[in-house]
Every structure is written in C-alpha cells, then in structure tokens.
Amino acid sequence: xxxxxxxxxxxxxxxxxxxxxxxxxxxxxxxxxxxxxxxxxxxxxxxxxxxxxxxxxxxxxxxxxxxxxxxxxxxxxxxxxxxxxxxxxxxxxxxxxxxxxxxxxxxxxxxxxxxxxxxxxxxxxxxxxxxxxxxxxxxxxxxxxxxxxxxxxxxxxxxxxxxxxxxxxxxxxxxxxxxxxxxxxxxxxxxxxxxxxxxxxxxxxxxxxxxxxxxxxxxxxxxxxxxxxxxxxxxxxxxxxxxxxxxxxxxxxxxxxxxxxxxxxxxxxxxxxxxxxxxxxxxxxxxxxxxxxxxxxxxxxxxxxxxxxxxxxxxxxxxxxxxxxxxxxxxxxxxxxxxxxxxxxxxxxxxxxxxxxxxxxxxxxxxxxxxxxxxxxxxxxxxxxxxxxxxxxxxxxxxxxxxxxxxxxxxxxxxxxxxxxxxxxxxxxxxxxxxxxxxxxxxxxxxxxxxxxxxxxxxxxxxxxxxxxxxxxxxxxxxxxxxxxxxxxxxxxxxxxxxxxxxxxxxxxxxxxxxxxxxxxxxxxxxxxxxxxxxxxxxxxxxxxxxxxxxxxxxxxxxxxxxxxxxxxxxxxxxxxxxxxxxxxxxxxxxxxxxxxxxxxxxxxxxxxxxxxxxxxxxxxxxxxxx
Length: 627
Known about the structure:
Distance between the termini: 27 Å
Structural class: alpha+beta
Radius of gyration: 32 Å
Oligomer: single chain
C-alpha cells in the first residue's frame, strides 16, 4: 500500500493552486460574515473581500479576452452581473457569484495536469557521444557529429548513437525501446542496429547509415511531438455556449428593464443567469470520477481524459507488459534423452546459467528457484559465448546451454521436431541443453499472459468496445496470443511509427481509439490516440509521461470499470447541465415577475450549485452493477 501511494504521489502532478485556495477560504468567510451581519461595524460591506479576491480576476480575464480576440466566454456574463450588482448596492450577490465561479475555475485547474517531460526523457535516451574508429585510432566525439559511413565502436552496456550495420563482432541488443519485446536479439556481422537501443554484451563495430534527425530515436521523438500537437482539447461546456448565454441574458434583462422600469429586476436576471451551476456541472463530475478512478488504481493526468474516453469505440493494446507480464519465463522443459528426466535437465540448465548476465539465463535461474524448490547445483569453469549461450562443468560433465548456432559450432546435432516448431511459432525461445557433446533436452522461454487478461477482454467486448492488438512481436506469436484472448484484429511486427499510423488510420475513419501500452515504443501511439493509458508499474517513465491516464498497479482487470465510469460520468454531466439550465430559466421567470431579488436569486442558484455538486459526488463510489 505504501508503494502504491508513493507511486501515486510521483505521478500526480497538481500544483500552483495554494493561492487560489487561500483566496477562496478568505472569500467564503467574508460572505458568511456579510450574510450574518457579524462584522456590520466595519465601514464597508465585508462581501467586498470576495468581490476583490474572486471577482476582479474574472473581470480582468473577460476584458482581456474581449479586447485581444473578441472571445466571449462565460466570464463575460459573470462580469456584467458583478458590475451591475455593485452598481445597485447588492454587494453580497456580487461577492457570492464571484465566489461560486472561482470554485468552478479551481476545480477545472485541478483536473488539468502540468506539461510533462516525456520528450526530454526521450532525448536523454540518445547517447551524447560516440566512439569513432579511423584506422587503429579510436576517438570520442559528440553523437551529433557522426557522419554516414563512419565506423563506430560500441562497448558492452553502451547505447547505440546512430542507426547502422554491424561490420565486426557479435552481441545481443536490447531493442525494447523500439519493439517493446523483453528478450534481447542476437546480432552479428551484417545485421542492422538502431539508435537508442542498448548493447548488452560483446563489443562490436558498425557502419553508420542514418544519423541526426533520420535516426530511429530522433524519428520517435518527432512522432511524439507531432502526435501531441495534433490532439484536440475539449472546450468547457459553459464557454462553448457562452455567446448564446450572454445574448439571452442581456436581451431578457434589457426587455425586463424596458417593460417594468425596474433595474433591480434586470440585475436579478443577470445574477440568476450567471452559469455557476453550469460551470460546476462538468468539473465536479470529472473530479468525482477521478476520485473513483484513483480508488481503482488509475491516475488521470489530463482533465478531459475521461470525457474523451467515453467516446472511444475501440481499445488498442500493446502485447508485451500489457496483456502479458513482460518478462520471459520457463514455460516448458523437454527431455530428448531416455536417460535424463525433465527435472534433471532443468537443474543442469540452471546450474550452467547461474553466472550468466543474459536475460534468458537470468530468467532460467529465477524460474528454477521459484518452482524447483531445490538448491542450484555447483558449476565450475563457466564460459560465456556471446550471442550463443554458456558452458560450464556441472556434476563433472561439460554442459552447454544455448541456441541452435551454439550447438552447431560445437558439433552437436539437435533435431527440430514439430513440437519445437510449434513453440517457436507461438513466440517461444528455445534454449538447448547438451551434456558431453550430446543434446539431452531443451527449455522453452516465453512471455506469459496475465491471468486477468482474458476476462478483461471479454468484459470489454460485452460492453460494445472492440479490442485491437498492436505488437512488435512476430505474426505467429501475436496470432497465438490473440486467439487465446478472442481478439480478431491483430497487427504484428509494429515499430513505433507503425502503431502511430494505425491509430491515426482508425481515427481518420471516425473510430475513436484508446491506446494501452507500457513501453517507450508505445509513446507516439499513446500521444496520438483519443486517450492513452500507460501501465504504471512495469511501464517506462516515458510511456507514463506520454499517457493521459496511468494504471498504477497494472491491474488490467479494472480497465472495463474505467470505460464504464467514463460513460457514467458523461451521463452525470448531462443531468447536471439539464438541471442547471432548467433552474436558470425558472429563476429568470421569477426574476422577471419580481418574486426574486438579487440576493435571493444568488442564493437560489447557489442552491442549484450545491445540488449539482451532490449529484456529482455520487460518482465517487459508483461501480457498474453495484447497488
């Protein structure tokens, strides 16, 4: 629980509101004192505290908007009501209207996240220097100065500065930044490598083929920037209707004054027509829904994210780390020798791999410790063969654990049967085990489905939202996962730009899509989608920064609830809007007939605001099907 809360505090970035809250507290106290007459001995009405602290900023913003861009928003009508109320001496009405409007503005501010630093983190992924080799001389230069055709040397653990082709050496490259897949890929002479990826083991030399803005990581940065710039923001309901509200209010007030000759009735119309409840209708519902989402492990980083989420008709999933756990596990151990049991083969493999730094070797050791409930056998004479595997002496025998290339290079014959081919087709990775120059068995490692993924996909489909699988994995592995989950639309072998283009294609066809992912390679698609949801536990910081919503605890079973909550929130907003507009028109009718004066009118629409807040508060503990 402590870790969960720390994650929430790190991800939720709301600040800059302390002054606003202080002003509202002081203004609220002043209004209470004005209404009760506690401070009537002062030479001025204490309600002026609220007028100055809350009303003056509204008037200034309205004037600036009108003068600079002739932008008519809800604050124009509020300013008119404030000024008119003050002119006829109804200070409390003016202060109360200003106070309610600033509460609405504060709630809106609280639902808007700060600008995020995801692009800066992407930039930091690119190495700032590169080792250029000229003849036998190696020199370190800024990565920006690398030219096409330069020969670069990359040492173990270093990031690759530019795109290129390996010219000497062999290694394993962590390509998760580009493909999202957790298992490093073995590379040798002639293979391509991408900037931003990481060299895990052997040193190698490469020839630069794409540099600067043409390199893979720089293209991804550009994709994130362009996707973010193209995402439309939803305009507040009160501001969207502001022109009509102002026109109707001024017309009604002018006609009433002209017909009755009583300016107080006209001012009352302006006061009751102030869109206080209308302004509160949306942000209060959003804040309550955000509170509900937080209880279920979601952090909403964009104020209008839930509004957008209610419109989605499809959800695009990354595979690795989202629908799966994102870490390789031993899923099968097979014996190819009559004299060897699967348990013994597993023990020999774990013993040989116990000193390995390769992710597959570590996975074998980790899984053995978790499942075998037996100590790891002693191993000596450990040796690692880059891009191939390991060998060690275990129980007096020379044990090899590695890929098919390692077996061939050591003269060991390993037959590829139909069972092995089936594992490979489903995305598995085979580690062969040999003892004394004879292949005795193999282990299958693969990423595994989250236990709740199938149930989550089924619930989503039942609610009418269609899932789509976007993955950098191969077609066979993607199809296998999709079949297990019942997902029909599958796109395999996707690079970051491919995912972005697919999201864009859906949305060009007017199909609003939500993207759910965890990797750096998902960042452009998370930005481009109508709503981006990142896995907060396993996910990279860059994916989290690119997303509108973060699933902190990675419990994907809660995603259907979030989708239902967003729709329920929109229903609540529509009810709030209908009620607030209905109350306004009723109050106008009463103001025209003289039944309401400015103070009573302010209290009436204040009561309307309270009812809107109470209705929104019902969202805090809402859950579909719960009574």
